[in-house]
Amino acid sequence: MLTLGFDPGVATIGFGFVDSNGGKMIPMRYGAIRTSAGLSLSTRLASIYQDAVELIDTFKPDAVAVEELFSNVNVKTCIAVAHARGVLLLAGQKCGVPLYEYTPLQVKQAVTGYGRADKKQVMEMVKRLLNLEKIPRPDDAADALAIAICHARTATSLLIGQEFNICSTI
User: Fold this and answer.
1) H helix or E strand, kind and range, residue 16
2) Do 8 and 81 meet the contact criterion of CB atoms below 8 Å apart?
3) Sign (positive/negative) of CA torsion 118, 26, 33, 81?
4) 119-147, pLDDT tens digit by residue?
5) What pLDDT is recorded for position 76?
6) Domains in the chain, ordered, with CATH?
7) Which residues have a Cβ under 8 Å from the Cβ of 40 and sit 6 or more positions away?
8) Is a pLDDT exceeding 50 seen at residue 47?
9) Tens digit of pLDDT for each residue in 57-88?
10) How far apart are CA 2 and CA 95, in angstroms?
11) How far is CA 70 from the centre of its chain?
12) 3 neighbors 65 (Cβ within 8 angstroms)
């Protein structure tokens, strides 16, 4: 299963593709979509949308995983990031790819085993889980890979649950 993870932003949007088969995960490609600060928000959002659609059309992922918004900083920044997140969801929807959303706590739990892990711990685990020589850069790409890993692990758990009928209602 090929998963595309997105770490939403306006200036820098991390993306990462992880191919998972059983318990093995292989990083296929990662990086960042970047937009210029001098452009209007609507122009930046259009650029993010076009780049996201191009990634989806080129690599044809089986799933798109997007981190849910969490911010305890500037409300104006939070709103702009929410717009960008919406554009990423729209791109996945328009391309017909199943969408999944995960909270930062879920991502940290899936990657490190601890929902309150710090950024450095998450990045180190991404490197280890994907057998990379160094931590992916920019940080947004490492975060996107973490989101893809979260989905790969969650999807595997869901499949196991279905296979053994663990998720049946009582």
Assistant:
1) strand 12-21
2) yes
3) negative
4) 999 999 999 999 999 999 999 999 999 99
5) 83
6) 2-163 (3.30.420.10)
7) none
8) yes
9) 999 999 999 999 876 667 888 999 999 999 99
10) 15
11) 14
12) yes
> DSSP label at 15?
E
Give the pair of three-digit tokens for residue 131.
């057998």
Output the average pLDDT for the chain: 91
Q: Is 38 exposed, middle or buried (0-12, 13-18, 19+ CB in 10 A)?
A: exposed
Q: Which residues are catalytic?
A: 7, 67, 140
Q: What is this structure's pTM?
A: 0.90
Residue 9 identity? G
**What is the residue type of 45?**
L
DSSP per residue, 25-83: EEEEEEEEEE--TTS-HHHHHHHHHHHHHHHHHHH--SEEEEEPP--SS-HHHHHHHHH
